[in-house]
Amino acid sequence: MTETPPTLKPASIKDVARLAGVSHSTVSRALRDSPRVSAETIEKIRRIAAESGYRASAVGRSLATRRTHTIGVVVTTITDAFAAEVVSGIEEAAAARDYSIFLANSGADPDREMRVVHTLEERRVDGIVVTASRVGALYVPMLSKMRVPIVLLNNQHPSEFAHSVMIANTEASAPPRGT
Fold it and tell me: Most buried pick, 61, 104, 108, 144, via CB within 10 A?
């Protein structure tokens, strides 16, 4: 019988702290170039972190900052050309600000849309964008409990947490001025 090799877990901030003989708070400060840590200690900690394969944990950081740097995006279907362009733009803008996105299809099913939004809240996203919502009006009371900002595209139900982005159809369909 052959033995399975042990799985190698990535080094944690506590592993780096132990190897450097400092607290995990000092490691965190050093990796952020805090002026509270000497240049010599920063260099030592960075070397140990690199040698041990340490990578900062987004999950750990989100527990400390209470921000996940993630935006949930709900579309009716990703095969819709408009939705694909919107998602592409959201992803590009998010990436430029070091945010990630979670993408979900609602399949034009109002119940599924609500479940997806609740799941995104459970994942602690920092905001939610919903395109062509089937249940936009239902978000208003739910959002006051969730306390997560939501943007509804092509659906107007403004409140403290709900924001709307609409296409100016009347203005867009008017003939050009001067004709």
Answer: 104
